[in-house]
Each structure stands twice: as structure tokens, then as C-alpha cells.
Design a protein that fits this description.
By secondary structure, the chain is of the alpha+beta class. Helices cover 15% and strands 41% of the residues. It folds into 3 domains: 3-45, no CATH class; 50-129, Carboxypeptidase-like, regulatory domain (Immunoglobulin-like, Sandwich); 137-214, Immunoglobulin-like, CATH 2.60.40.1120. It has one helix at residues 3-35; strands spanning 37-38, 44-45, 50-59, 69-71, 80-82, 89-95, 97-104, 111-117, 122-124, 127-129, 137-145, 155-157, 166-167, 174-179, 182-189, 196-202, 207-209, 212-214. Strands 3, 6, 9 and 10 form a 4-stranded mixed beta sheet that branches. Strands 5-4-7-8 form a 4-stranded antiparallel beta sheet, with no helix packed on it. A hairpin with a 6-residue loop joins strand 7 and strand 8 (111-117). The chain is rod-shaped. The model is unreliable at 1-13 and 15-38 (pLDDT under 50).
Length: 217
Amino acid sequence: MDAGFLVGNVKRSEEMARLERGVLGVLFLSAIVATGCYTPQGQKTLVPPVGFVTGKIYDEETDLPLAAEITFPLDPSLGGVVSAPETGIFRLTLPVGIHRLHVEKDGYKPFEVPVDVTEGRTILRDVSLTRKRVAKGTVTGRVTDASTGLPLGAMITFPGTAVPATASDLRNGIYKTTLPPGTYVVTVIAQGYLSVSSPVVVMDGASVIQNFELRKK
């Protein structure tokens, strides 16, 4: 028998086998889509029906989009997603049934919303987040020359804290700074003058007036 004939038959047989495997693969995938999945033992496993939830997460005050994390307290196995930073938009594919979306972002109050997912349908659910209120108070006052009463441009510092220094206005001597509630020592420094320190107690939502008179060295 001609060796070329044998080689040709072998090649055609391999091509037929690949074609048959491809056809069987398509049929198998079609069966999965239509009726479910099958285990290696041939047992049928149904694909659970799903629905969709989409929407936008944004700042309640500014309407700006937010990148926030969405999790599922009733079913942690669903994992979590993050809304798009540029648009705040999210899209979820969830099993049919009732779910609770937990939306959270640093600096904002967490928010939860229930959704009833129906097979093949899309639910629109926008979420607005409210910023957490940060406790703070204000220290303000005027820095002047003790002899003339003229305003001074001085540096107001808060030693031993992470509160940044601020400066009084050279035109009127007024300074103002916002900081968390607590007890502070305020130290005022101006070139050519003796520094002065004074304790202040800052309360949430309150304004403390503390004036300073500096004497020349």
C-alpha cells in the first residue's frame, strides 16, 4: 500500500476527530445553557436563575460620583464590588431572591438598601451617601502690640499636637483655626516680640475667643 495514502488517511482521520470534538463541545455547551451543568458522573446541576441590579452611588450634598464598596450581609459568599470612581455606576448579577446591599465608603455613613431580584430583569437603584460629621470647634482672636495696640502678624502654634500652625492677618491681627475638641496650649510667636502661651479648651460646635498682646523684647 502507498505510504502517502496512509499518511493522508491519518491526517484526514485526525481532522475528523478534531471536528467531531468541536461539534460535541458546542452541543455540550448548548446543553449547559439550556438545561444546566453536569458533573463528571453525569449528574445534572441546574444553573440558578439570576437578575441584575444597577445604579449610581453619589455624594448626597454635592451629587458627585463616589467609588464605594458594595457587599451583601445576607450572603457574604457573593463577595463585593466597587462602583466606578469616574461615574459612581455599578452593575450586579445576583441570584433571584431578596438581597440587602451594604454600601460603604471612608468618611461617609454606611447605607443599606433591600432589593428583590427577579429572573432576567434589571433593577435600578441609586444610592446617595451622607458624609460623617466630624466633631470640631474654633479658636479665634486678635494679636496686637501690648504698647501700641496695633495689629501684629504672628505665628499661632499648638505645641505637642498635630494641629498645623496658622498666622494672624498683618492688617488686623485676626487669626482663626478649626480643630478637634480638647485642651490645647496656644503659643504665639512674632519677630522682635516675646512669645506668649495660653491654655484653651475647645468644645464641639463652639468658638473660643483668645486674644494675645505681645511685648517687644
